[in-house]
Structures are given as C-alpha cells and as structure tokens.
Design brief:
binds adenosine-5'-triphosphate; five-stranded antiparallel sheet; OB fold (Dihydrolipoamide Acetyltransferase, E2P); alpha+beta; about 25% helix; 2 domains; six-stranded mixed sheet
Length: about 350
C-alpha cells in the first residue's frame, strides 16, 4: 500500500462521432486492471477502439511506457485486444489462431507455434490446440482469444465486454478464472463492461463513463459504497441523494432532511441501502431519527425480498420480506411510514 506504481498507459482521448463527444483521460499502472463501466452509448467502446488505434483521435494522446503511440498504426501498437465475440478465425485451429500474431510480427512458424502452445498449455487448453473455434465452449473460446491477444507480448491489453458472449450459468466460473489470468499479466489492462459485477470482480479500479466523460473513478468497493451519480447508485442498489450538510443534518435538494452518522458541511451525498429502510403502518414511537410518511409508488419482487418504491418528500426504495408486505397491506397509492437509522446513512462530500 502507498507505493506509487509507474503508469504503463497514459491516455487523453478526445474524439467526435456525429453529435457524440468523448473526452476521457486514463492512466493505468503496471499489473493494474481498469474497468470502464457505463450505460449503453456512454462511449466505452469508442475509448477502447481509440486506444487500439481503430478510431482516430481529434485531440489528446496515447502513451505506453512513455512512448507516444497516438499515430502508431493499429498493427504496430504494443496492444492485444479481446473482442466481445472473440472474433477467432473459424478456419484455423486454436493453435494457429494464437500463433497468428507472432507470425505477423515476423516470428518463424516454429517459434510462433511454440509460443502459442506454451500459452494454450498455461491456460489449460493444451488438449484443444487442434480444435476449431466452433468446437470450443464459451469459456474456452474466451481463453483462446486471451491467449491470442497475449501472444504478441503486448504492454496494453484491451478487453471489450469479455463476458458478453457467455451464458449466465458459466459466467461465475469463467469470470473467476479470467481474473486469475489477468492477475498474471504485468502490463496495463483496460476492460469495457456495462455489468457492475464484471467490474467489481475483474478490476482493481473502476472508471464510470457517462455521456463521454469519466464521472467517477475509484476502487470497486469505494465506488459501490459511495456512488456519485444516480446511474452508479442504481447499479449497486443504493438510495442516493444530493444536498447540503450542516453537521449531521443534510438538507436534500428536494427539501427533506436526513440525519446522518458523520458530521460534514457543504455540498454532500447521502447513500443507504434499501434494506436499511424500515416500513411502518403507523407512526412508530421511539422512532429512528429519520422518519417520513411516503406514498407507495410500486412493489416488485427482488430475489427473496420485495422492493417497495416510495415517493414524496424524497423518493426511495425499501426491501422488506413478503411476510412484512402482507402485514403492512401495502397498495399502490397508499401511504406508509419509512424510517432509516442515522447510523445507516452514509454521508460524503458531494
Ligand atoms: N458508427 C458510429 N457513427 C456515429 N456515431 C457513433 C457510431 N458508433 C457510436 N456512435 C456514437 O458514439 C456514442 C458512444 O458509442 P460507444 O459504442 O462508444 O458506447 P458504449 O459505451 O460502448 O456503448 P455500448 O455498451 O452500447 O457499446 C454513441 O452514443 C453514439 O452516439
């Protein structure tokens, strides 16, 4: 901890695509995995393609190990890329897919194949060297694509939605394995995803991209605990409010006041999970510090819980058990008292 690692990647990406403008600065250290997380159309793929040299920049730069590669052609960048659907050459064996890059870099056929065999072996795919891509499982195809990207000994590894082509039942296993393989890579890794779980598991650091800009950046746990935009709050399942703190009271932009645990002053964000919200049919005695009478806006199943959406002085989500729902007799348009303990409300500078 505390040690500053040297940046392998340092990039300032500015480009236009029609009305869309991307303006993103990234820096990734040796051995570090950065996830670009964001909604559809946010500009994640554009950023990745710009790093690979597949999209030209209108401004800014791409530096790898201190060398300027802003204008280096795609095939000469020290970059390996894993595409969303892997784009393996279907008419070639797994081995030849992996050997392709080294061959293009001028390695002899024997050397390229030896390097490919070594990588496949390392990824527990030695028995599949002669297999055609269509005969591989999703997880195996992903590893062949990763081996192909690493075969050119890149300093920068780019992964575009690496889990997208996999079915849900295999994702957990494949994700864990990918994480271990990425941990061994000593260059910089940038991966694009719109799945918060991928970002949390695979990345050391997350940059949230919205509307072509980085709106939040930090360690996964920090981003999850202290979201800075409604998009991130929804992703990680937190209620999020913006307001002004005066000691332990935060006056929200909508007019409600939330009592929080830790004193602050000035512009602030308040976050708490839906499970921290208790619902009561009548105003409770000896109540928590935060209590509001709100209107039920909707009820939905959420795992083995029920998520109740409430509106009024503030809009929030509450998770309760199906038994509690029956007991409260909640109906859309009805009212209910919602309480949150100050100790559960996280406050941080906004
Ligand atoms: N071929 C194109 N021509 C013009 N504009 C484009 C083109 N492709 C994308 N765009 C614009 O660039 C914006 C960013 O697209 P990009 O694919 O980088 O987003 P993304 O975050 O990767 O989204 P997704 O997860 O849907 O791939 C889009 O909102 C769109 O307006």
């Amino acid at each position: 901890m505390g040690e500053r690692r040297v940046s392998v990647l340092s990039a300032d990406l500015r480009l236009r695509r029609g009305d869309f403008e991307l303006d993103v600065a990234l820096s990734v250290a040796a051995g570090e995995v950065l996830a670009l997380l964001g909604p559809n159309g946010a500009g994640k793929s554009s950023a990745l393609r710009a790093l690979a040299g597949l999209l030209p920049l209108n401004g800014g730069h791409v530096r790898v190990d201190g060398d300027d590669h802003t204008r280096t052609p795609v095939e000469r960048r020290p970059v390996g890329m894993v595409f969303q659907d892997y784009l393996l050459f279907q008419h070639m064996s797994a081995l030849d897919n992996v050997a392709f890059g080294p061959r293009c870099q001028g390695a002899s056929k024997a050397d390229a194949r030896a390097r490919a065999a070594e990588l496949l072996d390392h990824m527990d795919l030695a028995g599949y060297a002669r297999a055609r891509p269509r005969n591989l499982s999703g997880g195996q195809a992903q590893r062949v694509a990763l081996a192909r990207a690493l075969a050119v000994r890149p300093r920068l590894l780019l992964l575009d939605e690496p889990m997208a082509a996999l079915d849900v039942s295999t994702r957990v296993r494949v994700r864990g394995r990918l994480r271990r393989l990425l941990e061994e890579f000593d260059g910089a890794t940038v991966l694009v995803t719109h799945d918060p779980l991928d970002a949390m598991v695979l990345a050391d650091r997350i940059a949230v991209v919205e509307g072509g800009r980085v709106v939040q950046e930090g360690a996964p746990a920090e981003v999850a605990r202290r979201p800075r935009t409604p998009y991130v709050a929804r992703l990680v399942g937190l209620n999020l409010f913006r307001g002004r703190a005066d000691g332990t009271a935060v006056l929200l932009d909508g007019g409600a006041v939330v009592e929080v645990h830790e004193a602050h002053s000035g512009s602030a964000l308040v976050a708490f999970p839906p499970r921290a919200v208790a619902l009561y049919r009548r105003r409770p005695d000896g109540s928590p510090r935060n209590l509001w009478e709100l209107t039920v806006d909707g009820v939905e199943r959420f795992g083995d819980q029920v998520r109740v959406h409430l509106t009024g002085a503030l809009d929030l989500a509450a998770d309760i058990s199906p038994a509690a729902l029956a007991e409260l007799g909640l109906v859309r348009g009805g009212t209910v008292w919602a309480g949150v303990k100050a100790a559960e409300a996280e406050c941080y500078p906004g």
